[in-house]
Specification:
The chain has 260 residues and is of the alpha/beta class. It contains eight helices and seven strands, in the order E-H-E-H-E-H-E-H-E-H-E-H-H-H-E. It has a seven-stranded parallel β-sheet with strand order 3-2-1-4-5-6-7, with helices on both faces. Helix 1 packs parallel to helix 2, helix 3 runs parallel beside helix 4 and helix 4 runs parallel beside helix 5.
């Protein structure tokens, strides 16, 4: 389905980003991974998903908080892959604290990585997509792009910003073959969420299983985690011809969280 297309997935060495990269690779897309830490393991997983499709696999370790490094990553994509057909803005970090105690440097970092990075990657990808009259920009927002939660001021602000930016760029590209959408997951069992569960278990002196049930019970009526594979499937739908006129949506995949 995606043979001949190149997908760049930011923050894709683990979690949601890696799950989406694997699902796109299974459909024949060439993949550019990005993220911190060891890239060899994730590259091997994506290569296995590609099989014998003949697609290319690349990696760029751009720090998504630095504009010059994002620009270098997009230049790498242009030089080595002929540009980006599918951009998945996924990179994100988290910090939890009440606003009066929220470190200003954490605010700056979260806005930079969770919001500004998506702006920079998108502004650099759109011209090439316009030239081909085909493209997909898929930004991973969150249920927190639609509703708030206490102690997450920077994250919620950034994710609401992603949803707003998605709508604007969708309108700017509405008469083209480029679609721009956001996916809003609920709880996904990523390393980031596992840390929150472990911290809760330690702080409340309860088991990890109890902490997990409490976390889901507070927000997610299904009492189930959304999986990276499910998010990859939704991203695939957004890349398909069936979604050619799906534009500017913030698509909740959150077990009923935002239905409440």
């Amino acid at each position: 389905m995606l043979n001949g297309k190149t997908a760049l997935v930011t923050g894709s060495t683990s979690g949601i980003g890696l799950g989406i990269a694997i699902e796109l690779a299974k459909q024949g897309a060439s993949i550019i991974l990005n993220g911190f830490g060891d890239a060899e393991g994730p590259k091997a997983e994506v290569a296995a998903a590609m099989g014998a499709s003949g697609a290319k696999l690349g990696y760029h370790g751009a720090d998504m908080s630095k504009v010059a490094e994002i620009e270098a990553m997009m230049a790498y994509a242009a030089a080595e892959f002929g540009g980006v057909d599918i951009l998945v803005n996924n990179a994100g970090i988290q910090h939890v604290a009440p606003i009066e105690n929220f470190p200003t440097e954490k605010w700056d970092a979260i806005i930079a990585i969770n919001l500004s990075a998506a702006f920079h990657a998108t502004r650099l990808a759109i011209p090439g997509m316009r030239a081909k009259n085909w493209g997909r920009v898929i930004s991973i927002a969150s249920a927190h792009g639609l509703v708030g939660s206490a102690n997450k001021v920077a994250y919620v602000a950034a994710k609401h910003g992603i949803v707003g930016m998605t709508k604007v760029v969708a309108l700017e590209t509405a008469t083209t073959g480029i679609t721009v959408n956001a996916i809003c997951p609920g709880w996904v069992l990523t390393p980031l969420v596992q840390k929150q569960i472990d911290d809760r278990a330690a702080n409340e002196k309860i088991t990890v299983a109890q902490a997990t049930k409490e976390l889901l019970g507070e927000k997610e009526p299904s009492l189930q985690f959304t999986t990276p594979e499910q998010l990859g499937g939704l991203a695939l739908f957004m890349c398909s011809p069936a979604a050619d006129n799906v534009r500017g949506v913030a698509w909740a995949n959150d077990g009923g969280w935002t239905a409440q």
